[in-house]
């Protein structure tokens, strides 16, 4: 993909993947010792929704670019 703007948006998804990795590791690696024992971090819904929407939008743009490349090749 040669679109510089899209490439920058892809690079900008770092925070999304950091959050995703933190969430998945906390769910996989932290077992509560007793009922109600939680050591997971909290996340604000607004910022989480923003990260998810950006990830989905960039993913769609990548798919669109790939479709163009496949149809012109």
Largest sheet: none
Shape: elongated
Kindly state the percentage of residues in helix: over 70%
Provide the structure class: mainly alpha
- Strand count: 0
Distance between the termini: 14 Å
Number of helices: 3
In N-to-C order, the SSE pattern is: HHH
Radius of gyration of CA atoms, rounded to a whole number: 17 Å
- The percentage of residues in β strands lies in under 5%
Give start-end ranges of low-pLDDT stretches. none
Q: Report the mean per-residue pLDDT as an integer.
A: 86
Oligomerization status of the protein chains: single chain
Describe the structure.
With about 70 residues, the protein is mostly helical. The chain has three helices and no strands. The longest helix is centred in the C-terminal third of the chain and has 28 residues, at about 45-70. The protein starts with a helix and ends with a helix. About 0% of the residues are buried. The mean pLDDT is about 85.
Please supply descriptive tags for the structure shown above:
mainly alpha, 71% helix, 73 residues, 3 helices, elongated
Q: What layout of secondary structure does this protein have?
A:
Layout (H helix, E strand, L loop, with lengths): L3 H8 L2 H16 L15 H28 L1
Short description:
By secondary structure, the protein is an all-alpha fold. The protein has helices at 4-11, 14-29, 45-72.
């Amino acid at each position: 993909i040669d679109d510089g703007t899209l490439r920058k948006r892809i690079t900008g998804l770092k925070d999304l993947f950091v959050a995703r990795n933190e969430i998945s590791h906390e769910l996989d690696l932290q077992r509560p010792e007793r009922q109600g024992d939680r050591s997971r971090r909290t996340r604000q819904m607004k910022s989480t929704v923003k990260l998810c929407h950006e990830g989905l939008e960039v993913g769609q743009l990548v798919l669109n670019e790939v479709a163009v490349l496949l149809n012109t090749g």
